[in-house]
Design goal:
With about 170 residues, the chain is an all-alpha fold. It is about 75% helix and about 0% strand. The protein contains 9 helices and no strands. Helix 1 packs across helix 3 (about 65-80), helix 2 (about 40-55) packs across helix 3 (about 65-80) and helix 6 (about 105-115) crosses helix 9.
Length: about 170
């Protein structure tokens, strides 16, 4: 759908929401953990989108991609700093989240790949188990013969390493 009119009336706004709601909802469900307030966040996406359409000079060319970008930003704002880093790892380097990863610029993705490459093999394997295989701490502990708290502590230290590396590269601040 191409939005031709920037000053939308109520009928046009309703049409936008009806045509795009399922896509935004599914997208949000794909990037959020179970139990997240998906409905509330989807509503925020459309409130922001409709406000932007009222004030911006140009309509977006690709409405779906534009709405997904707003959705990604709503999700990231709803997370704390540690969770934002975890999501950055999932989306930027591991390519999870589909189109989200493609929205980041190549420099940022490469910087995160470089930072992960600097980790030792055990640290990379832990990241893989947590963010690719999506295993919980207890499951990882069972596979590595460690404790759940030990796995959590190791993942925390790994995320701190990544954060420091990304800060040095000017990507994550």
């Amino acid at each position: 759908m191409v939005v031709d009119c920037l000053r939308m009336n109520a009928s046009e706004a309703e049409t936008l929401v009806q045509e795009q709601y399922r896509m935004v909802y599914r997208y949000m469900r794909s990037i959020l953990r179970p139990g997240a307030p998906v409905e509330d966040l989807v509503q925020q996406v459309f409130l922001i989108a409709l406000r932007k359409l009222q004030t911006d000079d140009e309509a977006p060319r690709r409405v779906g991609a534009w709405l997904r970008g707003i959705a990604r930003n709503v999700v990231l704002k709803s997370l704390g700093p540690a969770a934002r880093l975890r999501e950055a790892v999932r989306e930027r380097i591991l390519g999870l989240g589909g189109e989200v990863a493609s929205d980041y610029d190549a420099h940022d993705r490469q910087a995160l790949r470089d930072c992960i490459a600097r980790l030792d093999g055990n640290e990379r394997e832990l990241l893989h188990m947590r963010y690719v295989a999506d295993l919980r701490s207890g499951e990882i502990a069972g596979r590595t013969e460690g404790t759940r708290d030990g796995v959590r502590a190791r993942l925390h230290r790994i995320r701190l390493k990544l954060r420091r590396c990304l800060k040095r590269k000017g990507v994550f601040g």
